[in-house]
């Protein structure tokens, strides 16, 4: 019900804004809902706002779990 | 005895279109002479009449017309000028014909900068020259400020069908293969990237291109072509649905064979759009007999505008005209008609 | 796209699909509700539904803000634009939704209303700053994901001293709707929920404990990518098969138990819960919607235009959207599905947005019904 996509933060801008990159597509989004975002982080973007930082370790673990499950059957 | 009156040249740098430019008087004649004729000049336009007298044409004539409105008028990769020339060339080419001549008619809005109009007309001239299809006649009208959107251009084309070639949207047969000439969605996304309130930066250029050269190469390959169509408004999905309905057949596509440039795919994800429905201005769909598909593909890939051509699916027996697609995931779904204008969504 | 493409791997998807078939066995059927319309849309669009065994049925839930938005709220917005000459800013999703008198926001624009599509609440605020002579109303819709941006923009307008900006608030809450479904008299046979992805990035996974504990239904919060959804379905099957009813989180890369505290605090500062809010298809639900707090009344379109009020508009009699949103019926079981009611001419709530249950089935899945009829 809410379209959002992980995007890479490439530049921090004034007024709590940041430039994000998604495979070459760049847009300015607001960081006003999240704390401690740095260039190189991935954030989940919805209607021009970063909603949450993406946790790369958790992402890796989830993918590892898929791969493990894939071996089981 | 009369002396030629001095006529101050049009101020192309700072001048603007005014109502007199459409009045039929001297100002209009001057605009035509200094701007249109100067840029587009060819022997037929030089006849200076209300129409062009053209040489005899042998063969079946094809004629097509297209009204062009686009906002913004200048967009990444093109402008309304080149678009209006190539759009009609492509419509003629999709009929299996060699485009020969174009006519162009302009509706200009009072106050539109002449400098921008000149850029547009120059772009048309360049596109027509590169395509080898002259603009042989034209017309200009001016509407009051607020009653137009800068410039509207209608182009009409005439061409001659290739001997022995008859293409039509109702000729697709079960078993035929569906080919696509390249990556989809670039034009629509280039336009959207400029839209007020949406604007984003992306390395996306309109794919605007004249496809008659590619079509000539495809016909020269000897493949048994049944349908050619350029998936403009409504994108690939809508055009395939039109053909399926016209021919009374179904289709099965393979999602992983349909090329999409990464930035277009990313922008689609970001805005909640589906590249299958995003407009193209330099791509074509071909449907041909299965046994000729590889030959046709090779001919397309050998042409600069078909380097990323692919066989994207096949025609099925299905009187209901459903277009289905095996997804990248290995699942299956329908690819339906576009419902209204595709709008960016948040959910 | 990093963190997207990896979660669309076709080989892993086939393996997960095989694991699901193994776990589901040949026995009785499983009925899971994906609450969120984004999941509904993705299940159809990626063809995931076709990768599930026939005894695993997905029931499409009411988590589509456009679908559950009552017609009367759109009428309200249209009247503001037509009668009060405001600049009405809306997300693209709402523009085509049919309202009363054959109107929609797009059709109102054709009648002269100044209706503008925005991608972000930020754009609506900018339009207000650029047009100081006009009143600008932002038509705010959405669940907990979309609410924090609205809260943020109200604070920003306040800080900037904008006098010509207000919000017509239609923000709704996930858990009251889940509870409404679970509280149906007679009860709906559901074995568990696929929990929303992005709502949960804001509210966290903890609030769903209510569903697991009070109603004994498993919940697995899942991301929007196909592998996420397959994995969540597998986790739900395992819970059911081992007799568990827990909240599990498949979307750990973005969802924590407590969620986004900063966003929650901002929402609490600007909004309060309404006594009741009408949901299209579900009726009036207590404590299910948000309104602006009194301190922010100057940004509340409902307070600014007190002569305007919400008029409830009943749905078409033949429309089965209520039963479909509650999981009692499937789209193809509605008499007007695909005949009178289509995405081009939507009659009911579930057809108005691409993520509505009926629109998703019509657009992506109806060829299957035909095949079943034909065979």
Quick summary:
The complex is a heterotrimer of chains A (73), B (347) and C (375). In chain B, 27% of the residues lie in helices and 22% in strands.
Produce the secondary structure layout:
The complex is a heterotrimer of chains A (73), B (347) and C (375).
Chain A: E1 5-13, E2 17-22, E3 25-30, E4 42-46, E5 49-53, H1 56-71
Chain B: H1 26-40, E1 61-68, E2 74-75, E3 78-79, H2 80-93, E4 97-109, H3 114-131, E5 135-143, E6 151-161, E7 177-180, H4 186-192, H5 212-220, E8 225-229, H6 235-247, E9 250-254, H7 262-271, E10 285-288, H8 293-301, E11 310-316, E12 323-326, E13 332-334
Parallel strand pairs in B: 4-5, 9-12
Antiparallel strand pairs in B: 1-6, 2-3, 4-6, 7-10, 7-11, 8-10, 9-11, 12-13
Helix pairs in contact in B: 1-3, 2-3
Chain C: H1 10-24, E1 30-36, H2 37-45, E2 56-63, H3 65-68, H4 71-83, E3 87-91, H5 105-110, E4 114-118, H6 121-130, E5 136-142, H7 147-160, E6 165-171, H8 174-182, E7 192-195, H9 198-203, H10 209-214, E8 219-221, H11 226-241, E9 247-249, H12 261-270, E10 271-273, E11 276-279, E12 283-286, E13 290-292, H13 301-304, H14 321-325, H15 349-352, H16 357-374
Parallel strand pairs in C: 1-2, 1-7, 3-4, 3-5, 5-6, 7-8, 8-9
Antiparallel strand pairs in C: 10-13, 11-12
Helix pairs in contact in C: 1-11, 2-16, 7-12
| Global shape of chain B | globular
First-residue to last-residue Cα separation of chain B: 76 Å
Give the end-to-end Cα distance of chain A, rounded to a whole number of Å. Answer: 33 Å
Adjacency order of strands in the biggest sheet of chain A: 3-2-1-4-5
Number of helices of chain B: 8
The total count of strands of chain B amounts to: 13
Instruction: Could you tell me the CATH topology label of the largest domain in chain B.
Output: Phosphoribosyl-aminoimidazole Synthetase, Chain A, domain 2
Describe the model.
The complex is a heterotrimer of chains A (73), B (347) and C (375). By secondary structure, chain A is α+β, with helices and mostly antiparallel strands. Helices cover 22% and strands 42% of the residues of chain A. Chain A contains one helix and five strands; from the N terminus they run βββββα. In chain A, strands 3-2-1-4-5 form a five-stranded antiparallel β-sheet, with no helix packed on it. The longest helix of chain B is centred in the middle third of the chain and has 18 residues, at 114-131. In chain B, the strands form three sheets. A seven-stranded mixed β-sheet of chain B has the order 8-10-7-11-9-12-13. A four-stranded mixed β-sheet of chain B has the order 1-6-4-5. In chain B, strands 2-3 form a two-stranded antiparallel ribbon. With 347 residues, chain B is α+β, with helices and mostly antiparallel strands. Helices cover 27% and strands 22% of the residues of chain B. Chain B has helices at 26-40, 80-93, 114-131, 186-192, 212-220, 235-247, 262-271, 293-301, and strands at 61-68, 74-75, 78-79, 97-109, 135-143, 151-161, 177-180, 225-229, 250-254, 285-288, 310-316, 323-326, 332-334. Chain C is of the alpha/beta class and 375 residues long. Chain C has three domains: 31-63 and 181-249, HypD, alpha/beta domain 1 (Rossmann fold, 3-Layer(aba) Sandwich); 67-172 and 261-304, Rossmann fold (3-Layer(aba) Sandwich); 321-364, no CATH class. Chain C is 40% helix and 17% strand. Chain C has a five-stranded parallel β-sheet with strand order 2-1-7-8-9, sandwiched between helices. A four-stranded parallel β-sheet of chain C has the order 4-3-5-6, sandwiched between helices. Chain C has a two-stranded antiparallel sheet with strand order 10-13. In chain C, β11 and β12 (283-286) form a beta hairpin. The longest helix of chain C has 18 residues, at 357-374. The chains are: A alpha+beta (73), B alpha+beta (347), C alpha/beta (375). Chains in contact: A-B, A-C, B-C. The interface between A and C is large, with 38 and 55 residues.
């Amino acid at each position: 019900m809410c379209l959002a996509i992980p995007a890479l933060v490439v530049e921090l801008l004034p007024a709590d804004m940041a430039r994000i990159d998604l495979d070459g597509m760049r847009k300015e989004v607001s960081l006003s809902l999240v704390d401690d975002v740095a260039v190189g982080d991935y954030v989940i973007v919805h209607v021009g706002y970063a909603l949450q930082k993406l946790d790369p370790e958790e992402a890796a673990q989830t993918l590892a779990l898929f791969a493990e499950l894939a071996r089981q059957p | 005895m009369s002396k030629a009156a001095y006529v101050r040249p049009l101020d192309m740098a700072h001048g603007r279109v005014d109502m007199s430019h459409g009045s039929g008087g001297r100002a209009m004649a001057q605009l035509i002479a200094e701007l249109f004729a100067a840029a587009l000049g060819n022997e037929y336009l030089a006849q200076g009449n209300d129409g062009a007298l053209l040489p005899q044409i042998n063969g079946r004539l094809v004629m097509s017309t297209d009204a062009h409105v686009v906002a913004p008028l200048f967009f990444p990769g093109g402008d309304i000028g080149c678009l209006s020339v190539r759009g009609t060339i492509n419509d003629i080419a999709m009929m299996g014909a060699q485009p020969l001549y174009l006519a162009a008619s302009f509706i200009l809005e009072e106050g539109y900068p002449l400098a921008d109009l000149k850029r547009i007309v120059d772009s048309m001239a360049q596109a027509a020259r590169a395509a080898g299809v002259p603009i042989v006649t034209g017309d200009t009208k001016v509407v009051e400020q607020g009653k137009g959107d800068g410039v509207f251009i209608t182009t009409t084309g005439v061409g001659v069908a290739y001997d022995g070639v008859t293409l039509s949207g109702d000729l697709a047969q079960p078993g035929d293969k569906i080919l696509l000439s390249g990556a989809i969605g670039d034009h629509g996304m280039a336009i959207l990237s400029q839209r007020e309130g949406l604007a984003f930066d992306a390395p996306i250029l309109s794919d605007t291109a004249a496809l008659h050269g590619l079509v000539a190469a495809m016909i020269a390959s000897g493949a048994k072509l049944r349908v050619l169509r350029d998936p403009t408004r409504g994108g690939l999905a809508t055009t395939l649905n039109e053909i399926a309905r016209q021919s009374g057949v179904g289709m099965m596509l393979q999602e992983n064979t349909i090329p999409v440039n990464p930035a277009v795919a990313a922008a689609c994800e970001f805005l909640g759009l589906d590249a299958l429905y995003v407009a193209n201005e330099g791509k074509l769909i071909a449907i041909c007999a299965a046994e000729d598909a590889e030959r046709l593909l090779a001919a397309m890939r050998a042409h600069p505008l078909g380097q990323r051509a692919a066989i994207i699916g096949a025609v099925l027996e299905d009187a209901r005209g459903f277009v289905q697609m095996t997804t990248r995931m290995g699942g299956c779904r329908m690819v339906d008609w576009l419902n209204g204008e595709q709008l960016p969504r948040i959910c | 796209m990093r963190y997207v493409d990896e979660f669309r791997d076709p080989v892993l998807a086939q393996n997960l699909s095989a694991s699901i078939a193994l776990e589901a066995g040949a026995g009785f059927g499983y009925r899971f509700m994906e609450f969120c319309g984004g999941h509904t849309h993705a299940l159809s669009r990626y063809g995931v539904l076709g990768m599930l065994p026939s005894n695993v049925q997905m029931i499409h839930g009411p988590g589509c803000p456009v679908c559950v938005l009552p017609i009367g709220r759109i009428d309200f917005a249209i009247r503001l634009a037509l009668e009060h000459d405001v600049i009405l800013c809306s997300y693209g999703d709402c523009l085509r939704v049919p309202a009363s008198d054959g109107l929609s926001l797009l059709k109102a624009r054709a009648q002269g209303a100044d209706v503008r599509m925005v991608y972000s609440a930020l754009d609506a605020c900018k339009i207000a700053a650029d047009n100081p002579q006009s009143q600008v109303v932002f038509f705010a819709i959405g669940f907990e994901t979309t609410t924090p941006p609205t809260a943020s923009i109200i604070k920003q307008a306040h800080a900037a001293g904008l006098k010509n900006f207000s919000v017509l608030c239609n923000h709704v809450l996930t858990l009251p709707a889940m509870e409404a479904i679970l509280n149906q008299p007679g009860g709906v046979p559901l074995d568990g929920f696929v929990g929303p992805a992005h709502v949960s990035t804001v509210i966290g996974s903890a609030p769903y404990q209510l569903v697991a504990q009070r109603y004994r239904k498993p919940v697995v919060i899942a991301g929007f990518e196909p592998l996420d959804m397959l994995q969540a379905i597998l986790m739900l099957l395992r819970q059911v098969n081992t007799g568990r009813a827990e909240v599990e989180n498949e979307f750990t890369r973005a969802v924590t138990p407590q969620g986004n505290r900063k966003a929650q605090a901002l929402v609490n500062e600007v909004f309060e819960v309404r006594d009741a809010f009408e949901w299209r298809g579900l009726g009036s639900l207590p404590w299910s919607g948000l309104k602006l707090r009194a301190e922010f009344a100057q940004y509340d379109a409902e307070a600014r235009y007190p002569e305007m009020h919400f008029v409830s508009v009943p749905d078409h009699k033949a429309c089965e959207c209520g039963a479909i949103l509650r999981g009692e019926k499937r789209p193809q079981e509605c008499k007007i599905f695909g005949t009178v009611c289509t995405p081009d001419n939507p009659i009911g709530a579930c057809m108005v947005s691409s993520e509505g249950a009926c629109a998703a089935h019509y657009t992506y899945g109806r060829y299957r019904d035909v095949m079943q009829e034909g065979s």
